[in-house]
Amino acid sequence: MMQHFNHTDFNQWSRIYRANFINSLSGFKSVSLIGTSNKQGQPNLAIFSNIIHLGADPALIGFINRPLEAAPHTIANIESTGTYTINHIQESFYKKAHQTSAKYPSEISEFDTTGLTPLWRPSISSPFVGESVIQYALQLVEIIPIKLNRTFLVIGTITDAFVSKEWIEDDGFIDLEKAKSITSLGIDGYYNVQKIDRLPYAKP
Ligand SMILES: Cc1cc2nc3c(=O)[nH]c(=O)nc-3n(C[C@H](O)[C@H](O)[C@H](O)COP(=O)(O)O)c2cc1C
């Protein structure tokens, strides 16, 4: 039977139970690794799943960064260099990707601690993840502080994308199932995906 939960229930739950429940409720996420570096070229890598499409023309992507004390490094690097990379995760390295969420000090590179490979490309000042088969680079446009819970909406424009041609269909659709990009649920669930269908543009 379907159970009814409300605000009172949410408030009574333990922090972990509430985090698991509420984070699962909004559905499967576009989980990826965000690669950045500071001005001195010290790399940083962290897993993010609250990544959203804001528009295709211009090509804009947003992601939610938690309050600064919880997730300080990615956003600081983006503010100082103005660039970052987003790298899809495949099943072959999801455990290493998850490990990047650990609170390492700023002088420690998550590339070193997890064994993921930093990939530097000419004229892009942030590292990509060598193991990732779908990668794109962004230029910072705007950081919008959300006063309500001290999170940030970080908005970037896509400057470069690296995708194998074999996964791109004639109309531009990228078949992420073929690329084997995974998705996430809640704060620690990882899933492979399976396409049901592609449908024609809906008309009234
Ligand atoms: C599956 C998963 C998804 C996550 N998504 C986000 C997210 O969307 N935003 C965020 O700020 N932190 C997210 N985190 C937590 C960050 O990975 C973690 O705080 C990390 O240490 C931030 O690193 P930084 O300080 O190097 O930026 C997520 C963690 C996991 C395991």
Describe it.
This protein is of the alpha+beta class and 204 residues long. The protein has a single domain (26-191), classed as Electron Transport, Fmn-binding Protein, Chain A (Pnp Oxidase, Chain A, Roll), CATH 2.30.110. It has 6 helices and 11 strands. It has helices at 7-12, 15-25, 73-81, 94-99, 110-114, 176-179; strands at residues 32-37, 43-48, 51-56, 59-65, 83-88, 118-119, 128-129, 134-146, 151-163, 183-185, 189-191. A hairpin with a 2-residue loop joins strand 3 (51-56) and strand 4 (59-65). The longest helix has 11 residues, at 15-25. Residues 31, 44, 46-50, 64-66, 70-74, 98, 101, 103, 184, 187-188 line the site of flavin mononucleotide (FMN). Flavin mononucleotide binds at residues 31, 44, 46-50, 64-66, 70-74, 98, 101, 103, 184, 187-188.
Could you spell the SSE succession in H and E letters?
Answer: HHEEEEHEHHEEEEHEE
Summarize the biggest pleated sheet.
Answer: 7 strands, antiparallel
Separation, N- and C-terminal Cα atoms: 35 Å
Indicate the radius of gyration in whole angstroms.
18 Å
CATH topology (fold) name: Pnp Oxidase, Chain A
Descriptive terms for the model:
204 residues; alpha+beta; Pnp Oxidase, Chain A; 7-stranded antiparallel sheet; two-stranded antiparallel sheet; 6 helices; 11 strands; 20% helix; globular; binds flavin mononucleotide
List the helices and strands and how they pair.
Blueprint: H1 7-12, H2 15-25, E1 32-37, E2 43-48, E3 51-56, E4 59-65, H3 73-81, E5 83-88, H4 94-99, H5 110-114, E6 118-119, E7 128-129, E8 134-146, E9 151-163, H6 176-179, E10 183-185, E11 189-191
Antiparallel strand pairs: 1-2, 1-5, 3-4, 4-9, 5-8, 6-7, 8-9, 10-11
Bound molecules: flavin mononucleotide.
